[in-house]
Amino acid sequence: MKQSNQHLKIAILLMGTLLAIPTLQAAENAAKSTNGIAFVKIAPGCFQMGGDAGFKETGKAELPAHRVCIEKAFYLGETEVTQAQWTKVMGSNPSKFNVGSNPVEQVSWEDVQAFLTRLNATEGSALYRLPTEAEWEYAARAGSSAHYSFGDSPSALSSYAWYGNEGYGGRTSPVAQKQPNAWGLYDMQGNVWEWVSDWYGDTYYSNSPEKDPKGPEAGKFRVYRGGSWIASAGKLRLAVRYSGAPNSRSRDLGFRLVRQAE
To answer: Residue 249: how many CB atoms within 10 A of its CB?
Structure first.
């Protein structure tokens, strides 16, 4: 009987340890609010960036898949920047779908730079910026090597994303209404495409550095990622890359922020 009790105590201790692991991970990734915007800490790490060469929908710009290492922690917006957050900084709302809790849209890459300049001025330091394309995909994958953050099949996509096949009214939706990815980030797929900092290069992956790639030094177009409320399921795959002129605007194009880690 004593031996059985001892085994039971050991089992309870082990179970408690296992249950504590997700709690510790959640605490590490807990959202941090600053300037009215919630951020999630993204730890450094390495991942396989790019698409699956054997998948028929993979575009040439997604290849070759290559190892990338993010060497420094950073904070990424828990959600896309909302219209209310944009208006607080800029004083007006450019969005077609005028709802404060929805992501801001119809903002160009250049508009975002103006927003960043004003937001950084409130801090007296260049704390905020757009993510690099590599940081965006690393955070969007949240440890997944599949087409989506939750797996390869789009059958569960409607639980995580607002996208074109849903037939929900043809517009953006309030942020953080769907399930987040494993790192607590909402709408990394769908709702609005997200500008990143990089210039676009369709062959850049062939010579991209392994450590903290930042894209080509110059170009004509800037990259945006993640799909939107208009896009089909295939365009919400995490490896998909699109680009636009830095002054272009669209009703399904917005962004999320990085805040430098302290």
So the answer is: 16
CATH number at 110 reads 3.90.1580.10
In terms of Cβ atoms closer than 10 Å to its own Cβ (0-12, 13-18, 19+), residue 98 is exposed
**Residue 4 belongs to a domain:** no
- For residues 161 and 177, give the distance between their C-alpha atoms in angstroms, rounded to a whole number: 9
* Residue 236 lies in domain: 29-260
**Which amino acid type is present at position 90?**
M
Question: What is the length of the chain?
Answer: 262
- Amino acid present at 251: R
* Alpha helices, DSSP H, located in the chain: 2-28, 83-90, 109-123, 133-141
Per-residue pLDDT 10s for the chain (262 aa) are 444 444 434 343 333 433 333 333 344 555 566 778 999 999 999 999 999 999 999 999 999 999 999 999 999 999 999 999 999 999 999 999 999 999 999 999 999 999 999 999 998 899 999 999 999 999 999 999 999 999 999 999 999 999 986 545 689 999 999 999 999 999 999 999 999 999 999 999 999 999 999 999 999 999 999 999 999 999 999 999 999 999 999 999 999 999 998 7
What is the distance between the alpha carbons of residues 169 and 162, in angstroms, rounded to a whole number? 11
Residue 70 main-chain phi, psi, to 5 deg = -95, 115
Give ∠ CA 45-79-221 in degrees, rounded to 5. 75
Overall number of domains in the chain: 1
Is 3 inside any structural domain? no
